Amino acid sequence: MKKIISIIFLSILLFACKSNETAKKYEGYERKEDLQEPVTLVDRMSYTFGFDITTGINMMDSANSRVNFDYLIAGIIDGLEKREPMLSQEERMKLMTEIQKIQTETERIRYNNKMQEMKKIGETFIELGPKFLAENIKKEGWKETSTGLQYKPIKVGSGPKPADNMVVAINIRGELLNGEVFENTFEKGKPLEMPIEGVVYGFQEAIKMMGVGDIYEFVIPPSLAFKDEGSGQKIPPNSVLIMKLELVEIISTVEEYRQKMRRPPGL
User: Fold this and answer.
1) pLDDT tens readout for residues 249-258
2) What does the alpha-carbon distance between residue 145 and residue 206 come to, in Å, rounded to a whole number?
Protein backbone atom coordinates (compact mmCIF):
# COMPACT_ATOMS: atom_id res chain seq x y z
CA MET A 1 0.00 0.00 0.00
CA LYS A 2 2.79 2.45 0.93
CA LYS A 3 4.58 1.74 -2.36
CA ILE A 4 1.40 2.47 -4.36
CA ILE A 5 0.82 5.73 -2.49
CA SER A 6 4.46 6.74 -2.98
CA ILE A 7 4.34 6.16 -6.74
CA ILE A 8 1.03 8.02 -7.11
CA PHE A 9 2.37 10.91 -5.04
CA LEU A 10 5.58 11.16 -7.06
CA SER A 11 3.71 10.93 -10.38
CA ILE A 12 1.34 13.74 -9.41
CA LEU A 13 4.15 15.88 -8.06
CA LEU A 14 6.11 15.47 -11.27
CA PHE A 15 3.03 16.47 -13.25
CA ALA A 16 2.38 19.51 -11.07
CA CYS A 17 5.96 20.66 -11.65
CA LYS A 18 5.31 20.86 -15.40
CA SER A 19 6.09 24.61 -15.40
CA ASN A 20 9.72 23.47 -15.16
CA GLU A 21 10.04 21.37 -18.33
CA THR A 22 13.42 19.97 -17.22
CA ALA A 23 12.13 18.62 -13.91
CA LYS A 24 11.86 14.90 -14.58
CA LYS A 25 13.21 13.50 -11.31
CA TYR A 26 11.98 13.59 -7.74
CA GLU A 27 13.69 11.81 -4.85
CA GLY A 28 15.34 9.35 -7.21
CA TYR A 29 12.22 8.54 -9.24
CA GLU A 30 12.51 9.05 -12.99
CA ARG A 31 10.00 8.33 -15.73
CA LYS A 32 11.35 5.53 -17.91
CA GLU A 33 11.37 6.81 -21.49
CA ASP A 34 11.95 3.38 -23.07
CA LEU A 35 8.71 1.79 -21.83
CA GLN A 36 6.85 -0.26 -24.43
CA GLU A 37 3.08 -0.03 -24.88
CA PRO A 38 1.47 -1.72 -21.85
CA VAL A 39 0.00 -5.12 -22.71
CA THR A 40 -0.84 -7.04 -19.54
CA LEU A 41 -3.93 -6.18 -17.49
CA VAL A 42 -1.82 -4.95 -14.56
CA ASP A 43 0.34 -2.74 -16.76
CA ARG A 44 -2.64 -1.25 -18.61
CA MET A 45 -4.52 -0.60 -15.36
CA SER A 46 -1.43 0.92 -13.75
CA TYR A 47 -0.89 3.33 -16.62
CA THR A 48 -4.57 4.23 -16.92
CA PHE A 49 -4.99 5.00 -13.21
CA GLY A 50 -1.79 7.03 -13.20
CA PHE A 51 -2.78 9.04 -16.28
CA ASP A 52 -6.42 9.61 -15.35
CA ILE A 53 -5.58 10.89 -11.88
CA THR A 54 -4.18 14.03 -13.53
CA THR A 55 -7.62 15.01 -14.85
CA GLY A 56 -8.53 16.80 -11.65
CA ILE A 57 -5.18 18.61 -11.56
CA ASN A 58 -5.75 19.74 -15.14
CA MET A 59 -9.08 21.19 -14.02
CA MET A 60 -7.38 23.10 -11.21
CA ASP A 61 -4.74 24.36 -13.60
CA SER A 62 -7.35 25.67 -16.04
CA ALA A 63 -9.11 27.34 -13.12
CA ASN A 64 -5.84 29.07 -12.15
CA SER A 65 -5.68 27.19 -8.84
CA ARG A 66 -2.73 25.54 -7.11
CA VAL A 67 -2.63 22.08 -5.62
CA ASN A 68 -2.48 21.69 -1.84
CA PHE A 69 -0.47 18.46 -1.55
CA ASP A 70 -1.43 17.86 2.08
CA TYR A 71 -5.08 17.49 1.12
CA LEU A 72 -4.28 15.82 -2.20
CA ILE A 73 -2.37 12.99 -0.54
CA ALA A 74 -4.91 12.81 2.28
CA GLY A 75 -7.65 12.28 -0.29
CA ILE A 76 -5.66 9.52 -2.05
CA ILE A 77 -4.90 7.72 1.20
CA ASP A 78 -8.48 8.03 2.49
CA GLY A 79 -9.76 6.61 -0.80
CA LEU A 80 -7.29 3.72 -0.92
CA GLU A 81 -7.86 2.81 2.73
CA LYS A 82 -11.63 3.33 2.41
CA ARG A 83 -11.81 5.82 5.25
CA GLU A 84 -14.73 8.16 5.88
CA PRO A 85 -14.15 11.04 3.42
CA MET A 86 -13.65 14.55 4.78
CA LEU A 87 -16.10 15.80 2.13
CA SER A 88 -19.34 14.01 1.37
CA GLN A 89 -20.30 12.78 -2.11
CA GLU A 90 -22.74 15.68 -2.40
CA GLU A 91 -20.07 18.21 -1.42
CA ARG A 92 -17.60 16.75 -3.90
CA MET A 93 -20.14 16.85 -6.74
CA LYS A 94 -21.04 20.44 -5.87
CA LEU A 95 -17.33 21.29 -5.99
CA MET A 96 -16.97 19.79 -9.47
CA THR A 97 -19.82 21.97 -10.70
CA GLU A 98 -18.15 25.02 -9.16
CA ILE A 99 -14.82 24.20 -10.84
CA GLN A 100 -16.52 23.69 -14.20
CA LYS A 101 -18.06 27.16 -13.92
CA ILE A 102 -14.65 28.65 -13.17
CA GLN A 103 -13.21 26.74 -16.12
CA THR A 104 -15.90 28.08 -18.44
CA GLU A 105 -15.28 31.67 -17.37
CA THR A 106 -11.50 31.21 -17.63
CA GLU A 107 -11.80 29.76 -21.12
CA ARG A 108 -14.12 32.61 -22.15
CA ILE A 109 -11.53 35.17 -21.02
CA ARG A 110 -8.75 33.28 -22.79
CA TYR A 111 -10.81 33.09 -25.98
CA ASN A 112 -11.62 36.80 -25.93
CA ASN A 113 -7.97 37.69 -25.33
CA LYS A 114 -6.92 35.41 -28.18
CA MET A 115 -9.43 36.96 -30.57
CA GLN A 116 -8.22 40.46 -29.65
CA GLU A 117 -4.67 39.30 -30.39
CA MET A 118 -5.81 37.87 -33.74
CA LYS A 119 -7.53 41.14 -34.60
CA LYS A 120 -4.34 43.13 -33.96
CA ILE A 121 -2.29 40.73 -36.10
CA GLY A 122 -4.92 41.00 -38.83
CA GLU A 123 -4.58 44.78 -38.82
CA THR A 124 -0.85 44.50 -39.57
CA PHE A 125 -1.63 42.13 -42.45
CA ILE A 126 -3.67 44.83 -44.23
CA GLU A 127 -0.42 46.51 -45.21
CA LEU A 128 1.90 43.49 -45.28
CA GLY A 129 -0.32 41.32 -47.50
CA PRO A 130 -0.32 43.39 -50.72
CA LYS A 131 3.42 43.99 -50.40
CA PHE A 132 4.14 40.29 -50.02
CA LEU A 133 1.94 39.35 -52.98
CA ALA A 134 3.58 41.96 -55.19
CA GLU A 135 7.07 40.75 -54.33
CA ASN A 136 6.35 37.02 -54.40
CA ILE A 137 5.04 36.97 -57.98
CA LYS A 138 8.38 38.39 -59.14
CA LYS A 139 10.26 35.36 -57.80
CA GLU A 140 11.49 32.67 -60.18
CA GLY A 141 9.00 29.94 -61.04
CA TRP A 142 5.92 31.71 -59.71
CA LYS A 143 2.79 32.28 -61.81
CA GLU A 144 -0.63 33.78 -61.16
CA THR A 145 -4.14 32.80 -62.25
CA SER A 146 -6.78 35.28 -63.37
CA THR A 147 -8.25 35.26 -59.84
CA GLY A 148 -4.97 36.25 -58.20
CA LEU A 149 -3.97 32.80 -56.91
CA GLN A 150 -0.17 32.48 -57.06
CA TYR A 151 1.35 29.05 -57.64
CA LYS A 152 4.64 27.27 -58.21
CA PRO A 153 4.79 23.60 -59.29
CA ILE A 154 7.27 21.51 -57.29
CA LYS A 155 6.41 18.02 -58.54
CA VAL A 156 4.06 17.41 -61.45
CA GLY A 157 3.04 14.03 -62.85
CA SER A 158 0.20 12.62 -64.91
CA GLY A 159 -2.16 11.65 -62.09
CA PRO A 160 -5.93 12.24 -62.37
CA LYS A 161 -7.35 15.58 -61.31
CA PRO A 162 -10.38 15.88 -59.02
CA ALA A 163 -13.72 17.45 -59.87
CA ASP A 164 -15.82 19.77 -57.73
CA ASN A 165 -17.87 16.97 -56.17
CA MET A 166 -14.87 14.94 -54.99
CA VAL A 167 -13.44 14.22 -51.53
CA VAL A 168 -9.65 14.25 -51.55
CA ALA A 169 -6.83 13.34 -49.17
CA ILE A 170 -4.27 16.12 -49.13
CA ASN A 171 -1.12 17.03 -47.24
CA ILE A 172 -0.98 20.67 -46.18
CA ARG A 173 1.63 22.97 -44.78
CA GLY A 174 0.10 26.38 -44.08
CA GLU A 175 2.00 29.44 -42.91
CA LEU A 176 1.09 33.05 -42.17
CA LEU A 177 3.04 36.18 -43.08
CA ASN A 178 4.44 36.35 -39.55
CA GLY A 179 5.97 32.88 -39.96
CA GLU A 180 3.43 31.07 -37.79
CA VAL A 181 2.58 27.60 -39.12
CA PHE A 182 -1.12 26.89 -38.61
CA GLU A 183 -1.17 23.38 -40.09
CA ASN A 184 1.42 20.81 -41.15
CA THR A 185 0.21 17.32 -42.03
CA PHE A 186 3.54 16.56 -43.72
CA GLU A 187 5.02 16.32 -40.21
CA LYS A 188 1.99 14.56 -38.73
CA GLY A 189 2.18 11.87 -41.41
CA LYS A 190 -1.58 11.79 -41.99
CA PRO A 191 -3.23 13.79 -44.80
CA LEU A 192 -6.52 15.59 -44.31
CA GLU A 193 -9.66 14.30 -46.00
CA MET A 194 -11.84 17.11 -47.31
CA PRO A 195 -14.62 17.74 -49.82
CA ILE A 196 -13.43 20.25 -52.41
CA GLU A 197 -16.77 22.02 -52.39
CA GLY A 198 -16.48 22.61 -48.65
CA VAL A 199 -13.31 24.73 -48.63
CA VAL A 200 -12.71 28.41 -49.47
CA TYR A 201 -12.44 29.31 -53.16
CA GLY A 202 -8.65 29.68 -53.17
CA PHE A 203 -8.30 26.13 -51.85
CA GLN A 204 -10.77 24.83 -54.40
CA GLU A 205 -8.89 26.42 -57.27
CA ALA A 206 -5.55 25.19 -55.96
CA ILE A 207 -6.64 21.58 -55.44
CA LYS A 208 -8.29 21.30 -58.87
CA MET A 209 -5.05 22.43 -60.54
CA MET A 210 -3.27 19.36 -59.16
CA GLY A 211 -3.16 15.71 -60.15
CA VAL A 212 -2.71 12.87 -57.70
CA GLY A 213 0.92 12.83 -56.58
CA ASP A 214 1.54 16.47 -57.49
CA ILE A 215 3.13 18.92 -55.07
CA TYR A 216 2.64 22.66 -55.47
CA GLU A 217 3.35 25.80 -53.51
CA PHE A 218 0.55 28.35 -53.40
CA VAL A 219 0.08 31.85 -52.10
CA ILE A 220 -3.62 32.50 -51.51
CA PRO A 221 -4.64 36.16 -51.08
CA PRO A 222 -7.25 37.05 -48.44
CA SER A 223 -9.87 37.70 -51.12
CA LEU A 224 -9.74 33.99 -52.05
CA ALA A 225 -9.46 32.75 -48.46
CA PHE A 226 -10.90 34.10 -45.22
CA LYS A 227 -11.01 37.81 -46.18
CA ASP A 228 -11.35 40.26 -43.28
CA GLU A 229 -13.00 37.69 -41.02
CA GLY A 230 -10.25 35.16 -40.40
CA SER A 231 -10.89 31.60 -39.25
CA GLY A 232 -11.02 30.44 -35.66
CA GLN A 233 -8.04 31.02 -33.41
CA LYS A 234 -5.39 30.17 -35.99
CA ILE A 235 -5.94 32.40 -39.02
CA PRO A 236 -6.27 36.15 -38.38
CA PRO A 237 -8.30 38.50 -40.59
CA ASN A 238 -6.67 39.67 -43.85
CA SER A 239 -4.35 36.64 -43.92
CA VAL A 240 -2.31 35.72 -46.98
CA LEU A 241 -1.94 31.93 -46.81
CA ILE A 242 1.45 30.53 -47.81
CA MET A 243 0.74 26.92 -48.68
CA LYS A 244 2.50 23.74 -49.70
CA LEU A 245 0.03 21.10 -50.93
CA GLU A 246 0.37 17.47 -51.98
CA LEU A 247 -2.63 15.76 -53.52
CA VAL A 248 -2.36 12.27 -52.04
CA GLU A 249 -5.60 10.64 -53.21
CA ILE A 250 -8.98 11.20 -54.79
CA ILE A 251 -11.16 9.25 -52.37
CA SER A 252 -14.63 9.34 -53.92
CA THR A 253 -17.53 11.63 -54.68
CA VAL A 254 -19.04 13.51 -51.74
CA GLU A 255 -22.21 11.39 -51.91
CA GLU A 256 -20.26 8.10 -51.92
CA TYR A 257 -18.17 9.34 -49.01
CA ARG A 258 -21.26 10.23 -46.99
CA GLN A 259 -22.85 6.85 -47.69
CA LYS A 260 -19.69 5.06 -46.61
CA MET A 261 -19.55 7.02 -43.36
CA ARG A 262 -23.12 5.93 -42.56
CA ARG A 263 -22.35 2.23 -42.88
CA PRO A 264 -22.06 0.19 -39.67
CA PRO A 265 -18.54 -1.03 -38.81
CA GLY A 266 -17.56 -4.18 -40.66
CA LEU A 267 -19.95 -3.74 -43.57
Assistant:
1) 999 999 898 8
2) 10
